[in-house]
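Chapter review: from sequence to fold.
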Amino acid sequence: METILALRDLGILTIFLSINIRNRMKLLLIGIDGFAHQLLENRSVNAPNLEELLKSNFKEFELKPEWALSAVMWNAIFSGKHPEELKDLRYTREDEDGKIHIVKYEELPEDLRKRYIWETLARERPDLKVVVVNAPVVLPPWSNVPIELEDSGVAVDYEPNIINMGITTETILRHYDADVGIVVFTEIDRISHFFWGEKEVFNAYENLDQLIGIIMERIKPENYMIVSDHGFRDLPKEEQRILRGGQQIKGDHSTTQIYAGSVEINRITELRDAVLRIIE
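The token string follows.
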């Protein structure tokens, strides 16, 4: 199976491999949008790094169908709010004149934003460096450091998404000296919608596994968390649809969410408080 390492410039690895990291990151939280754990279980993909990381305190949470949306679950994960409270949250909103616009970060409810892990730490632990890369609480995902991703188009092109995995990896590695790192890979979800069951999905997982291996090897965080917003599944043929550009949607969200990490949680709403306890 062909695997393309997704870093734009492999020379950047030489830089990071030579870094002497003195202060280890206290916590690294890695999010994977649309992670289908069954692909590891049934050996459809070779992902040794993820398999090892998922051995620690692994949990599967079953979601209600109306919760299994990225806008709902990423906001629930990062705020600690119950997804039932957020089930109507979407990335877009209809204005009074009937026009649809994308919701911006500053337009989110203030009581929700104030509960985000990074905003809470900014208030309670201003001495800490907290880096956020691609948090999909809005679209495009929100970051507090510069990042320029490739445009993958409305109908998803495969290669720009693979490149974006590398850009995301480079970005978190550049901030290896942070006390807390939060990074989310959204590309698996996008690729799975259009290439579910095909080699592009399997290749994407193996690329991601290599990149996560590089991240963990270089940063060596004291604690880590791996979390998804939902899983992925086959979309029955009668439910498959063709976009205007001719691309077919072949996969859709499943109601299975996963977590693994250095500390145990029993429900996804506990993740935020678990992060705050680690940082105490």
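Two observations follow directly from the output. The chain has ten helices and twelve strands. The longest helix spans residues 199-219.
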